[in-house]
Design goal:
Blueprint: E1 2-11, E2 20-27, E3 30-35, E4 41-46, E5 51-54, E6 56-58, E7 81-86, H1 116-126, E8 131-137, H2 138-146, H3 156-170, E9 174-178, H4 189-201, E10 205-209, H5 217-231, E11 234-237, H6 251-263, E12 268-272, E13 277-281, H7 295-303, H8 305-316, E14 335-339, H9 359-369, E15 374-378, H10 382-390, E16 394-396, H11 410-425, H12 431-437, H13 440-445, E17 462-465, E18 486-491, E19 494-498, E20 501-502
Parallel strand pairs: 1-4, 1-5, 6-7, 7-8, 8-9, 9-10, 10-11, 11-12, 12-16
Antiparallel strand pairs: 1-2, 2-3, 5-17, 13-15, 14-15, 17-18, 18-19, 19-20
Helix pairs in contact: 2-3, 3-4, 4-5, 5-6, 6-10, 7-9
Bound molecules: zinc ion.
Amino acid sequence: MHDLILTGGEIHDGFGSAPITADVAVTNGRITAVGTDLGPARRTFDTTGLVVAPGFVDAHSHSDKVPFLPDPQPFKLFQGVTTEIIGNCGFSPGPTNPAVTESGAVTLGKQEFRTFGEYLDAAEAAGPSNHLAALVGHNTVRMAVAGMELELPPGGLDRMCDLIEEAFAAGAVGFSSGLEYVPGAYADRAELIALARVARRYGGTYATHSRSESEGLADALDEAVDVARSAGIRLQYSHCKASGRAVHGSSLLILEKLAAARRSGVDAKGDQYPYQAFATDLLAMLPPAACEGGVEAMRARLSDPATRASLQAVAENPHTGMGVGLWREVHPEDVQILRHTDPAVTGRRLAQVLNGRKPWDALCDLLIADPHANTVCHTMDEGDVLSIMADPLVAIGSDGGSPVGPNHPRAFGTFPTFLGTYVRDRGVVDLPEAIRKVSSATAGQFGLTDRGWLGRGAAADLVAFDPATIGHAGTYERPDVRPTGMVHVLLDGEPVIIDGEFTGARRGRMLRSGRP
Ligand SMILES: [Zn+2]
């Protein structure tokens, strides 16, 4: 007797094979049979007319704090996402060092996680709504050892290696960097290679938000590939994009460099979200040097007219590529302020809040007032987004964070937007390939070998969706809209979305490397 059978669906295996019409049986959290006349089951869902596929794997997410929200959070399940790779862009909720006072460490209410393992345990106990597999972040580890200082203290690199080792022993699936953010931006290549070598010993993956996604793109990609090659580690090049008008058309350069890396023996892949705008901290506009020593030091620099001017010269220097902040890739009309303590500027474009100031001065004033402000920046060319999307080396990852407060629509709609707008309506790739890009492509890259595919023996993370209605109507103005088309979602064989409605159950787990 099976626990559950999905009958009559269009079955996709997640590897890109042509679909078949068949039933899928599930018992004890595993797929036990795919075919017809599978025998009796305790429960049956008729999936005739629906696509049945492996649960989606979000290659790039920032849901690290989501399990600690008071209510269950189905925003990813409504998109079909059953597993998210978290801890991206160099930031994970542990390890932290309370002795580093101005750390900007991730704090969750009163909780601070001294170790990565403590975080995993606490998140597991809090009860995620879908599975999470976590990377340990370079920025986080560096902050625990050196705060916001440029130079590591004596023995600092060894201490960082120990923290990375501890994280992998606790179950990290990879190591991430965010080299456009401080203090990660202060690291040289040798530091990254040393840390990636520790990750390599545990079979981890190196995911990097590289040092530039604009005019320093080529050098930044070369650095990412060099780190991976030197450490002998798989490379996940995060949120592939050519950002800023100066590099529109550079998608082919990205794709060629990824392909060339593979030809030379580096297991390089990437991910992308299907939007033309990115979202990040407003602070990332500044050259990294502006933030050395922490927030108060940054405020003092921006408040001093001479230092403010010299930082502007660095930020706007046309002769430097990577490592100078994001300022040169945005125009004031591209920058939409998403969150700021001043409600008068929230939701508006930088160009609309100048009040007679030069854009740089307005930026500095906004950051002095609120160093934690966020933005959405409309900097990508549609042709680049489409060519990156069509490439088989690139999977789909939302880059979305917590579903609370002002947001980018990617948090709520990445996967339905990809499948509806880009696959069904625009035919960028066919459906079997699209499903591969949201399932096995990422699961394999992060060592989640029993997920991301549909077949006997795989974990029964499954989705059934209506290919005619899958989509997301969210916008930059109103992102928090429930997607359409997701009918059933199973997590380890347990239905968590039934007929489009969330059951309310927190059935997610922290997926730890090397453990079932
Ligand atoms: Zn990033």
